[in-house]
Amino acid sequence: MGRSAVSNQHMTNKYLECPRDHSRLQETHVGEAQLDVCPKCTGQFFDSGEMFVSFGMKADPSYWDRTETASAVREAEIHCPRCEKKMLLQDVSYEGTKVEIDRCRSCAGIWLDKGEVDVLIKIGDKLEPLVNAETDKAKAELDKMGTPDFSGGMIARFVKMFKKD
Ligand SMILES: [Zn+2]
Ligand SMILES: [Zn+2]
């Protein structure tokens, strides 16, 4: 008993490599999230959900998957540091601000090169009033119906369609 009770858990977690220059990524804490940052090119890898945890709603991928940001997606030249699948390159642009980000379709991880996170947050800032307006509109529509919101948005909309006279 007790012999080597401290497992070498860290060793079993394969370390991540920078998809650009193959440097070993360093674990860095940003708020609650633990990011993997390249010491050489300062690129950052975010696991699914870590963008949101680190920077809030404005940096969440749901902000970029909108028609306004007109995202073109194509095959990226880099592989995901986490699962080694080929990543997808996505254009995110809004009102003259544009950035290309690498996303993994397998683990939903995101690779951001130096400076890209700042651009994404800038886009998030610009989109915020739009998203807030939509949320307010959806709330107002539910209020108009005068039904409690236990049915959820989709069903509520469905019911509304058939209520039309
Ligand atoms: Zn790097
Ligand atoms: Zn992946």
Mean pLDDT: 82
End-to-end separation in angstroms reads 76 Å
Q: Compute the CA-based radius of gyration.
A: 21 Å
Strand content: 15-25%
Structural class: alpha+beta
Quick one: how many beta strands? Answer: 7
The residue ranges in which pLDDT falls below 50 over 5 or more consecutive positions are 1-12
* Bound molecule types: zinc ion
Strand order of the largest sheet: 1-2-3-7-6-5-4
Q: Tell me which oligomeric state these chains represent.
A: single chain
Shape: elongated
Order of helices and strands: HEEEHEEEEHH
Report what the structure shows.
This protein is 32% helix and 24% strand. The chain is α+β, with helices and mostly antiparallel strands and 165 residues long. It has one domain (9-133). The protein has a seven-stranded antiparallel sheet with strand order 1-2-3-7-6-5-4. A hairpin with a 6-residue loop joins strand 6 and strand 7 (110-112). The structure holds zinc ion (ZN) (2 copies). One zinc ion binds next to loops.
